[in-house]
Design a protein that fits this description.
The chain contains no helices and 9 strands. By secondary structure, the chain is an all-beta fold. The strands form 2 sheets. Strands 1, 3, 6, 7 and 9 form a 5-stranded antiparallel sheet that branches. The chain has a 4-stranded antiparallel sheet with strand order 2-8-4-5, with no helix packed on it.
Amino acid sequence: MKTAHFLIPDITTSQDLSAAALSYTTTLDKAFKLEQIQFRFSQAVTETITITLDSAKGASYDIVLRVKDLVAEQNYVFRPEGEDNYQKGDQIKIQCTNANGVGTIYGKLKTSEM
């Protein structure tokens, strides 16, 4: 049986990578489905993006969903494989290194309510 999904307004974040690395955790207070995460950079960058499930059950249940090494790229879209449904209290954490210290990252998380 299919579950009904209702789009939640986009969650956005940004970070000037010359000042610091990006580390952002959502604050969703309901069960949700992760549809996709879009990343755009103000210029081509060589950095590493990490996307993690921050489990409501505690750190022992956290899991890395994706690590992506970008080389001279300006865009990246993460689309989960299969159904990525999460419980109330689960959060998504996105991180981006600033090893090269240039550009600004813009992140947009698309989720839906179950």
